[in-house]
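$ run holo --ligand "NAP" --emit tokens
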Amino acid sequence: MKKVVVFSQIDQDVLERLQQNYQVVILNPKLGDINAQIRQEVIDADAMIGSGRLLNESNLAPAQQLKIISTVSVGYDNYDVNYLNQRKIWLSNTPHVLTETTADLAFSLLMSAARKIPQLDTWTKQGQWQKTISTEQFGVDIFGKTLGIIGLGHIGAAIARRGFYGFNMDILYHSRREKIEVAQSLNAQYRELDDLLQQSDFIVVAVDLNVESKQLIGAEQFDLMQKHAVFVNIARGSVVDEHALIKALQNNKIFAAGLDVYAKEPLQSSALFELPNIVTTPHIGSATAQTRKKMVQLAYQNLVDALENKTPRYLVNPNFK
Ligand code: NAP
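-- output --
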């Protein structure tokens, strides 16, 4: 019987389906060093499924017959793809099914930060609404403003659609390659990064994390933004220099920020939490019951296809056909 290692919590139905057909080992961080568990269980594993763990030579080296790692995520920066290529191990991911949900979250952060929703929720509930509100409670306009998207991929385009159709926004974008078709449908204008930062009222980061996008936004980039700009990151924490962001917010170089992702996760304490002009969420871009179900089902199908000697539909490294 083929062996499947489950390296994070996954949906119960999918787990039961796996258990019907394979020998399933579920790793549990409460039972001790997770990397030691991976090294031990991977020796005779055929497949792995899960998310949120760093998998590379240090814990995968003992694998003898590992065919696929099926990540329940679209981002795959936790995995050393070069090493997987060397070892001829497939990596599959779950694109598309989370695009709209993650775009919803990005727009929620944008709106919450622009209108200070969480801060004013707390303020109202604390009984501080004693007379007419003052300018301190004012936000910034969204409708008809300029939205700059950094990384006009699937999620970036879905965020842009919300801005264009829902809020009559002018769309600017920056990507490594121009996205003619998507851009045309949204009347989106390509800009070099510096120009986008200078011209946008709202800036949303939606790139994948790679060598070029790491620390893409730092002090120099925050300096270029407008004083009333709202900055949102739903991509990966390492795309942004967090210290530079904290400084920009402390010095009111920008109006506000909305963050779903951080350099270190889970984040339990940070200078970010002390700032009045930031809205934070705990990496919940795709976290709705419906979307998470679709993601794990897709990850399951990728895994089963590989074990049945078919080519999975969503491979990050498809060169081992
Ligand atoms: P995607 O379709 O691959 O889009 C990524 C886009 O980023 C591509 O259009 C790419 O453009 C662009 N890009 C990459 N490096 C760049 C750089 N240095 N400068 C400018 N643009 C760059 O992926 P997606 O499905 O939209 O997902 C994007 C990322 O969002 C994922 O990789 C993941 O890290 C993150 N995410 C987060 C959550 C969450 O819970 N917060 C949920 C889902 C996804 P080129 O074609 O020009 O390279």
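-- notes --
Residues 74-75, 95, 98-99, 102, 150-156, 174-177, 206-210, 212-213, 216, 234-236, 260-261, 283, 285-286 surround NAP (CB under 6 Å).
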